[in-house]
Structures are given as C-alpha cells and as structure tokens.
Amino acid sequence: MNKILICDYQSALEESYDITFEALKNTLSDEYNAYEIKVCAYEDDDQLIQELQGAAGLITGFLEIGEKILDKADSLKYISVSGVGYGNIDCEAANRHGIKVCHIAEYCTEEVAEHTFALINALNRNLKFYTKDIEVEKNWKYHNISGGRTLSNQTLAIFGYGRIGRRVAQIAAGYNMKVIAVDPYADVLSAKANNVEIVTADEAFKRADIISNHMNLTEDNRHFFAKEAFSKMARKPMFINVGRGASVCEEDLYEALMEGQIRAAGLDVLEAEEPCLDECRLLGLTNVIMTPHSAFYSDDSIKALQKISGENLGYCLKGKQDMAAEIVRECK
Hints:
Layout: E1 2-8, H1 18-28, E2 35-41, H2 45-52, E3 55-60, H3 67-70, E4 78-81, H4 91-96, E5 100-102, H5 109-124, H6 127-135, E6 155-159, H7 163-174, E7 178-182, H8 188-193, E8 196-198, H9 201-207, E9 210-213, H10 227-231, E10 238-241, H11 250-258, E11 264-267, E12 288-290, H12 299-317, E13 328-329
Parallel strand pairs: 1-2, 1-3, 3-4, 4-5, 6-7, 6-9, 7-8, 9-10, 10-11, 11-12
Antiparallel strand pairs: 5-13
Helix pairs in contact: 1-12, 5-7
C-alpha cells in the first residue's frame, strides 16, 4: 500500500487533520483507499527517514528537508508545504531527486497584515511596558516612558511588497502613514498609484521610522538584517519581522536594541523554528514583543491551510497538477 505522511514539529502539529483527510479523499477519489495516511511528530532526521519509507507524498509546514533526507526517501514524489514559504525545502536537492514541491500561494494575507499592525500598535503605544509597570511595579503613571509619536507622523518601510506587503500598505494608509517599499520585483507604477514609493534598501534604512519585513527567504537575503543593516538605520526605527526568522541575525538584533540603533522589535519568527527560549537574549526586554509564529493563525486560516495542502498533494498524486493552478511549483 502507498503511504502519505503528515509530519511536523510537535509544536506545529494540529489537533485534528480531518479537513486534510477530507481534501485528500475528494481529490484522490477512487484511489484514496490505496493510501495509508499517517500523522506523526518529528523527532530527528533518522526517524523521519524511517517514516518516509514507502511514502509517495509528504505534507509538512516547517521541517527542514534537505539532501540527507531526500537521498533516502526513494519512494517520495511530492512534498506539499502547508504554508506560503518553502525556504525550509532544499529545492535543488528535490529537483535532483525528481521530487516536486507544492506550496500555498495565498491563504492568510489578512491575518498576517493584522498581526503586523497589532505588533506596531502595541510597541508604539508602549503596551508591554505599561503592563509590566502596572502588574509588577504597581505604578499607575503614564509618564514613566516617552509618549512617542503617532503613526501618522511616521514613515513605514515594507521589505517585500507582495500580497501581504501590499495589504500592510493599505492598512498603513488608514493611519495616514507615509509608506515606502523595497522589492526588486515590484511594479513601480502600480505602487505609486497606491501612494507607495519603491526605494532601495539603503534609502529605506535612511528614511524609515518603522521597518516591517515580509520577504520570502532566499539565500540572497539570509541574515539580510544584520549588523551592517542595523547600523544604517538612521532614525532608530521600530523593527517588525513577520516574514522569515533566518532573514535576521538575532545576535546583531539584540546588540542593535542594546545600543539604541533600533528602538523596539516585534517578532513573530526567530532564527530557529523551535527556539530554545532559555537561551534567547531577547526574552524579557520591555521593548520587544514576540509571538510563536502565530501571525498566520486563525480558525479561518487553519481550515484553508489544511484544505489546500491536502488538495495540492491529492491532485499531484492523481496526476492532475493543473488542478492546483498557481500553487504547484517544480523546484529548479
């Protein structure tokens, strides 16, 4: 019997995959019963390799899948990434082994854009500071910290002007913010029509009061935000990362916060997908808010994520890749 494996870190596994099972059943139709479907938590690479024996398809959101694993997954034909980003998959290795990778092009734009502004507003209005000051220090004083400036008097620089970046820009417009964006693939005229100016990274570092990262992770932008970049941030901006953790060098971010090169940070992702929080130096800082890669998360988005990732894999296994239009990519 063929096998479909659903595997991820324990912290990322859903309580139920009924929606994924239903999507697989609908797309595979009469072939559904020919597959054994197994859900398991990742323990280590050796355990994953063992689980992949006999598997034609893998559904995962966050597991790092590289040459070591793919070289020993002889039956694997498709990987369905239950998310937008697929930087955790070594596409060159997948291509060498003839394995195609599916991902979800669109499902949580609203959630991530809202989360971005939840972090911006919370930091700009000093909510973490006030919560600690009231609950721990028992102080009922608003002037124990600088009042700062309204968002309407600040410039937002968006790195990565895709679906989410554009939605963030739309929300920023509601706050009457000046918006600039960094994206080599952006349509300059379209952005201008929406009052967004496309600029270089150095120009954004020079002008931004708030920087928000929405870039997909590539080898070119790994540790893009590191010591050199932080040193160029002239206006001591707030830094938001709801994109990819590996885009940021955490140690350099910590030093930038300590040295006042940036005034605050809102982080939905860290370099490690399962970070050791006991060793995280960013923990406990009153000008840093962290969330556990939850920007995408809502009841609506989880339903969409499970449905689409299941459909993608089902269509591929059924030989109907065209049915998953725009969300199936061959790794190159």
